Amino acid sequence: MKTVLLIDDDLEVQQLIKTYLERESFGVYCTTRSTEGLEMIKAKKLDLVILDIFLPDGNGLEVCKEIRRTSKIPITLISAKGDESDKVLGLGLGADDFITKPFSINELVARVKAQIRRNEFIEDYTKENGKKSDSIVVGPLVINVESRSVFCRAEKIHLTAKEFDLLTFLAQNKDRVFSKDFLYESIWGYESSGDSRTVTVHIRKIREKIEKNPQEPKIIVNVWGIGYKFTVNGSL
């Protein structure tokens, strides 16, 4: 049984999500407080966290950041405020998805399923490819697939789970051009109109960590009108 932790102080929304997820044979833990949620993440085997941004004892974005310090579990942020800045910040802090209230409960359930499937695929892929080749070495980067670690110019780079997946995918397909929509569907595992900008956020974060000058990228470059490609270009 797959298990989900729901951290939301809106008890009506909490019960609705819980009911629908349990109908799909999920185990669901619920709490209204971030402190208890963080303790549950440490104590229980979970497959995904649904996290509200506004909580009575803290900001969900800070909770997301704290989760990412120790765990790569998929995180779906939910918010009653459709502020794009919150979405960009949340994704930049390591969230895997963002959905605004009021939302279709069926869509939320579908997204939860997709995130868990995608995470399982990545884990299986990592294990299989780790046996064949521990590392990808391209230019200044060394990507260890099995340990999910990255070094750039001999320095360890700390990436979120999705940043690692996106960088690895591009590095394994050096010099191939991919659209944002294709990368979004490949890494996040489902289609959602408008959310390909999630890729833009993650590319920006990766560039800040691996490029000498993120404003003039030499590793992950834009291909005008199409998308991005991983290349080795100029002084790195």
Write the layout of secondary structure elements.
Blueprint: E1 3-7, H1 11-23, E2 27-31, H2 34-43, E3 48-52, E4 54-55, E5 58-59, H3 60-70, E6 75-79, H4 84-92, E7 97-100, H5 105-132, E8 135-138, E9 141-144, E10 149-152, E11 155-157, H6 161-172, E12 177-179, H7 180-188, H8 197-210, E13 220-223, E14 227-230
Parallel strand pairs: 1-2, 1-3, 3-6, 6-7
Antiparallel strand pairs: 4-5, 8-9, 9-10, 10-11, 12-14, 13-14
Fold and architecture overview:
This protein has helices at residues 11-23, 34-43, 60-70, 84-92, 105-132, 161-172, 180-188, 197-210; strands at residues 3-7, 27-31, 48-52, 54-55, 58-59, 75-79, 97-100, 135-138, 141-144, 149-152, 155-157, 177-179, 220-223, 227-230. With 236 residues, the protein is an alpha/beta fold. The chain has 2 domains: 3-116, Response regulator (Rossmann fold, 3-Layer(aba) Sandwich), CATH 3.40.50.2300; 133-230, Winged helix-like DNA-binding domain superfamily/Winged helix DNA-binding domain (Arc Repressor Mutant, subunit A, Orthogonal Bundle), CATH 1.10.10.10. A 5-stranded parallel beta sheet has the order 2-1-3-6-7, with helices on both faces. It has a 4-stranded antiparallel beta sheet with strand order 8-9-10-11, with helices on one face. Strands 12-14-13 form a 3-stranded antiparallel beta sheet. A hairpin with a 2-residue loop joins strand 8 (135-138) and strand 9 (141-144). The chain is globular and about 50 Å long. The model has no long low-confidence stretch (mean pLDDT 85). Residues 133-232 form the OmpR/PhoB-type domain. Residues 133-232 bind DNA.
